[in-house]
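hey can u run this one w/ AFP bound, need the structure tokens asap thx
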Amino acid sequence: MDQGQTLSRLLESYGTDPRKRAVAAAVGAIAGASVEISELIGQGALAGITGAAHGSANADGDVQKDLDVKADETIIAAMKDVPYAALASEESDTLMMGDPQAPISIAYDPLDGSSNIDTNMTVGTIFSIIPNEPGVTPFSAPGSCQLAAGFVVYGPQTSLVLTLGDGVDIFTLDRKAKTYRLIRERVKVPADTAEYAINASNHRHWEQPVRDFVDECLAGADGPRAKDFNMRWIGSLVAEAYRILTRGGVFLYPADQRPGYGEGRLRLLYETHPMAFVMEQAGGGASTGRERVLDLTARAIHQRSPLIMGSIDKVNRIELLHTDPSAAARTAPLFGRRGLFRV
Ligand code: AFP
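ok here u go:
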């Protein structure tokens, strides 16, 4: 594709069969809605968007912010001409049913990172498009069945990350023309990295393998990884994912021992499945720590799943620490916690 090519042109040439036309229509609808959402975010309090609670809660009990609700309404309205069987939204307790004969269904988080709105930080929209088979319950297949997935980052630029199952492309919104233009094609996650992202305030709640991994990073050049690491935590999944696509890194939101966090915080259908699809399509990895996220099938719309994603060398390392705890011991420094000599 040519640099600067528009998303619309890519979608026009995506294919002629009904399912591909439906995928193209859905991506186009989300892109169109994201232009409106981006303008709202850019106006903030001037458009009455304050990040204040909307006085309600979503299915998972999260307090709904004004922009959560407005973004969801915008996306639903944009879907009016898209042939979908069902919509699964973070902001809706139940599925929104469409045409049971339609070729696709869509799961989406209309506004990820909404606790960042009132602090003027990056937020986003995440989406996953799956095939629909008449007579089959929507969203009952593993994540590997996704047809397309991606996310919009409402940051200094508004950018849309997209995979249609053949690599990952990134488009940035040309605000004057109100159209997305290609800026990066066939994006690859750098295999090695010196950056990890985790909410370190949860250290005491983590399982041992996660502690072992973070301790290895904290040990730096003198430790088992023999290099110094940097840490990031933005509190916005889309921003972390975009950074990883840009310069590598690993993001962890693991299961932890807090009540309700036994499967982490992120939701499978509209957060970890789409992120996993994008990361694998970009040559990275996405795991729960014990299994591939794309092998998971949802038991319920708002089911959670742990997410460890990014540079494949780090995802593999973290999986090894989960499956073979002694791996941490084998690399501990001679004078380290598990070395020959206790200090
Ligand atoms: P909100 O949408 O409630 O702000 O949650 C954002 C999020 O789902 C994800 O975008 C962040 O990576 C993660 O939660 C941050 O979680 P902590 O607040 O527990 O660090």
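The two ends are 58 Å apart (CA to CA). anyway lmk if its weird
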